[in-house]
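ok so i was messing around last nite and threw this chain in just to see what happens. nothing serious, just curious
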Amino acid sequence: VQLQASGGGLVQAGGSLRLSCVASGGTFSSYTRAWFRQVPGKEREFVARITWTGGTTVYTDSVKGRFTISRDNAKNTVYLQMNSLKPEDTAVYFCAAGRPIMSYSQMPGGYRYWGQGTLVTVSS
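result:
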């Protein structure tokens, strides 16, 4: 089972990036998919999650209105569209998949499978 994240890069403040995360080696259509991010010296931070039907999305407050999570179950892929990027969005972004209980749905421990991370750098 593998999650492969891609789409990171260097962008100026105010710009946009779209991250993708493809799952392989299993069927993930029934899994909650999520994005987390981490900067050196800090804990991994929840960014967004989407239920397996795509009917429910949740975002951390700092990205609401700027980021959009979506999924294509036919392609086992989840996306994170990031607009109006800010320097404080700079981090390594990780995708995750799992079946977290509600109290763990925004915590890294709630997810069983992880991608390798993709670096997003936003310059001011």
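not much to say yet. The chain has a mean pLDDT of 94.
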